[in-house]
Amino acid sequence: MFDFVRKHTKVMQFMLFLLIVPSFVLFGLQGYNRYKEKGEPVARVDGQDILQGDWDDAHKREIERFRQSMPTVDPKLLDSPEARYATLERIVRDRVLLAASMQSKLVTGDTQLARELQNNQAIAALRGPDGKLDMERYRQLVGAQGMTPEMFENQVRNDLSTRQVLAGVGGTSFGTAAVASTALNAFFEKRDVQVAMFAAPAFASKVNPADADLEAFYKQNAAMFQAPEEASIDYVVLDLDTVMKGITIGESDLKTYYEQNAKRLGAQEERRASHILIAAPKSAAAAERDKARAKAQELLAAVKKAPDSFAELAKKNSQDPGSAANGGDLDFFARGAMTKPFEDAAFALQKGEVSNVVESEFGYHIIRVTDIKLPKQRSFEEMKPELEVELKKQQAQRKFAEAADVFNNGVYEQADSLKPIADKLKLELRSASNVSRTPTPGAKGPLANPKFLTALFSPDSVEKKRNTEAVETAPNQLVSGRIARYTPARTLPFAEVKDKVRERYVATRGAELARKEGIAKLAAWKANAAAAELPAAVTVSREEAQKHPPGLVEAALRADPATLPAFVGVDLGAQGYAVVKVDKVLPRQPSTPDLAKQEVQQYARAWGAAENMAYYNMLKDRFKTQIKVAKPAAQASDSAVARP
What predicted TM-score, i.e. pTM, was given to this entire model? Predict the structure, then answer.
């Protein structure tokens, strides 16, 4: 074989050329690095991996959607470990439901897709008076989400198909009044209890450890007294602000931009309106919505009969708690501040005019426009500073992509220093000390970003002192860092932490003594209830805990009502121990007919959600679902809730 290769070198070179070059032509160099660039698998569903890059991209889209829906809120609020993990769970949920829909052959036809797109308010706004869709604006709309129209429509198809997976479970759920009442009465009932607390701090004075005790405790619990690993680092940040500093806008360009965009950039027209709302959420039954619509029609007839009575009718009948007391007045608002059906109706009216009944997701509105504030066109000189900022931002957005490529390549190609890329892009070379794997209290920017810190403490960075890859820590922000000095985690000397050891020892032994005393009292009082030394009774419930720990209240409410009065012991961990005497059950006050009806509906929805969750968990097992990333400790509840 090797003789053949040596004798036919040119033939082998030609064969390799035929095999390798077409694949580069078809897929490009990036295709070979795509898997690596996407990172390691973070989850697996039905044999398919979800990669780190998929997770990062999805979370970036989540932040962008959040930013668009709530422009005034800092999107960095969503960049916490808990928020990122919730995004991963949503990806997993979508993959599980998609796998289930494919297995069950649940498909979405063209007619159903068209109906869904027609009901999409954002797309409906792109239709002209003739009903024809403005395709260019449609492409821009979906392009802002990083998709083509075909990709968007395929996503909608998948969403509709996956909805069918859970619709057969949650959609058939129901709750009778008797069942709902039994469950709710048990959940909201109250109990009279007497509580004897054996608090750990009260026993601390009885703990007098010798040095030998402290040293033994120190050796048994060495992990409590460790100094975490830390590093001194250098890092550079590439963001839009950095790119903007190098951009200069000419006067002529500013004037041209002003002439082309003056109307758009000027102040917005504002309307002042009052409304009467008859509440009827989309989730309400059809009969309820019909009743609400009829009520709104009656009020509209009254308004048209006596227009000056609008404020009085709003005070008496509007179900909007924020405006009813003010005669329905909503003050001035511009476009984008109200739900779209309401906004369209308000901006179609003249001053003093009253709308017909307008349906929104909140119910039925009657709208009266009371004032119109027309915008005043500002001069070029007035708008010049903000025009310059906007143009710089636009150019920076375009140049950022080029700079990002240079940044990515630079930190990789010269991996032993950040100075070359800092000099090339005119970036500030920053430094920080006492950096650890988890963000320290008060840390900001990249030093508070878990993704950057993970890259910084990777084996390649720690052992070889190489630059990290370019890490996206926020929209339009890339960071790379390198470790200048690394100190591994170590157990601190006993002499250095002796006071802390004593504090931990006393707290631990105090809790043990409290528990021992509480258990002894519980046994004695069960044997002789008359000897129990207890404070006056208080009434507790899940809604009114009377400052008692949740575990204590839960234990009291779970005591068998057939055996009352009864003693219950509750281990409160580091807080100590409690003995609870449950004296009697106080039945829940009966609800009004209207409230009872709402409670049955809420119970049915909650039961449906529980059935959906149980079915979803079964699907996760069926499709061998794994999440390979640890859930953040601060996140106590499971956020992967299956929604219909």
Answer: 0.48
